[in-house]
Each structure stands twice: as C-alpha cells, then as structure tokens.
Description:
This protein is mainly alpha-helical. 67% of the residues lie in helices and 6% in strands. It is built from 12 helices and 5 strands. It has a 3-stranded antiparallel beta sheet, sandwiched between helices. The protein has a two-stranded antiparallel sheet with strand order 1-2. A hairpin with a 2-residue loop joins β1 and β2. The protein is elongated. The two termini are 44 Å apart. The N terminus is likely disordered.
Amino acid sequence: MADSHFNPSQLIRDLQYHAGPYAKYALEARKKYIELRLHQDKRIQQVYIRAIRRVAKQLKELSGSEASPVKVRHLLDVERAIAEEFAKLNGNVDELTKEYIQQGVITGTSYSQAITLNAIKEIGLATTPMLKTYTRLNTRAAEAIYARTHKGLATSDLIWNNSKRAEQAVRNIIQEGVVTGRDAKEVAEALEKYVLTDSKTMAINYPDMMERIQSRVPLRLSYEALRLARTEMTAAYGEGTIAAGRVSPSYEGTRWMLSPSHPVKDICDTFANADFGLGKGVYPKGEEPMFPPHPNCLCSLLPVHESPEDFVERLRVWQKDRHSQPDLEEWYQNIYKAA
Ligand SMILES: [Zn+2]
C-alpha cells in the first residue's frame, strides 16, 4: 500500500507547532482525517470483497459437487451475476465516495469553525449565524467536489470507469478458466484470492491458470477505486479548510504542511516552499493553492489565524466602536448578518 511508509509523527509535531494555541483543534481534525482514510479504504475494499464472493458462489454452484471445468454455458450464466454484482458495486462505491467527501469537508471546516465559534462566544455574540454559515458551506463544498470534472469526466464517471475495469478483469479471469478448461471451483477460489491480495499472489497460488492473465488484470482489483475515493476525500478536506477560513474573521491564510513521507521531491515541495511574505508555505487569503496536487498526497493544510488573545481583544474593541475594525465590521455585515 502507498501508506506503508507513512510516518505521521513529524507532521503531527509540525501541526502542533504551527497551530500553537489552536493545536487541540488541529490535532482533532488530523485524527479525524486519518480515521476517515482508514475507514474509507476498509469499506470500499469490503464492497469489492462482497461482490467477488457472490460471483464466486455462483461459479461454485454451477460446478456442483463434482469437479467440473468451466464451460461456455457456465460463462453465460455467470455473466448475469457479474453484471448484477458490479452494477451494485458501482452504486455502493459511489455512495461511499460521496459520504466520505461530505465527511472530508466537515473535517476540513472544523478547525476554523472551532476558532471562530469560541471567540465570538467569548464576547457574547450568538453562534447560530456562524454555525449556519459553516453548515451551508459544507453542503456547497461537498457538492462542488463531487461535481467537479477531471479531463471532462465527473467523479461519478470516474467511479463508473473503475467499476467497469474491475468487472472486465473478473470476466477475463473467468474466460481464461473456460479457455484452459479449469475447474469452476478453482477459478472461484482464484477470484477470492485475487480480491483479498493481488494478482501476483493469485498467480503464485494458481500458477498455470494465471500465467497468461496476469498482465491483463490490475495488480489490485480495488486499487483505482480506493485511490479515487482518497483523492476526492482529500480534495474535500482541502476545500472545507479553505472555504471555512475565508468566512472566518481571524483567518489570514493557509499554510502548506508538507508530508515528511515524501519518497521523492515533487510538486508538494514547491508548494511548501512558496513565499508570499507570510512565512514559508503560507498562502494569503484568496490565493490558496489547489489541493491535493497529486493522488495519494499525504500533505495537509493548516489555516493561519490571529492568536486567540489578539482576536478576542479586537472583537471587544470592535463591539465598542464598529468602525475601529473595518475588516470585522465587513465580516459582520456580509457574512454574520447575511447568514
Ligand atoms: Zn503532498
């Protein structure tokens, strides 16, 4: 897995350092984000395992109690099961991807939301309008991520393409079984092995069956679906982080937090070293970068806010004289009161 060399401790320390008085919220958001990644992977993988088990069961039932080769007749029967199972799988993966986009946005928003709500509570301003603002922003950001296109293809199209590719891989393996006169049970077991491990392991366990097929099927059946879901969830996290920052009155910009597990220097190093005069890797409000710049990126974003003391003090000054803090007055009129 791409995560095997993932060492989170350095990034955690960096987050703690840069978040300073807000470290608690930064660490909570990071923890939630990592949990989302893990659960998302597990649940999508589970959808694949379930689909393959159902196809394998069909295949085993066809062969009856006696060992019998897969025949063309069997293939036509099992064809229906494959189509059905992968239509279901596609719907499930789509739902899960959508669900984790929503969760990713909420997690991204949580940091700036906590900072703003705490500060305005402290000066006795009602929190409801800002809660409404963040909630609406979460919905809008999730919809935008799901609807965005990659080379003309929407997220749902990409999910569908991945499902179709996996379906075709399963077909190829079963067809190979027919061509080489394999026992249906053995083909079914090979498929189950494949979804639990990868095509290399399957080939080791079923050598003569898989020799010809290995180059025509992906190494891991669920890999593309997992990778896409992760990229979308990460993008959702980034979208939530930036959008929430922009409506928060103490927000100054966003810091690129480079993942220390980068195997090679890549575009992320460039992002992390950009200098706008706010400190290395800090992007001013309105100039935040696209995130993530590549699939499987393990970097993070951390909004930069005024310190809680400075911010609350400024809010108090503003309460006494609205015109003394034009940026806070603008936030109050355009964001707080407009909620
Ligand atoms: Zn990165």
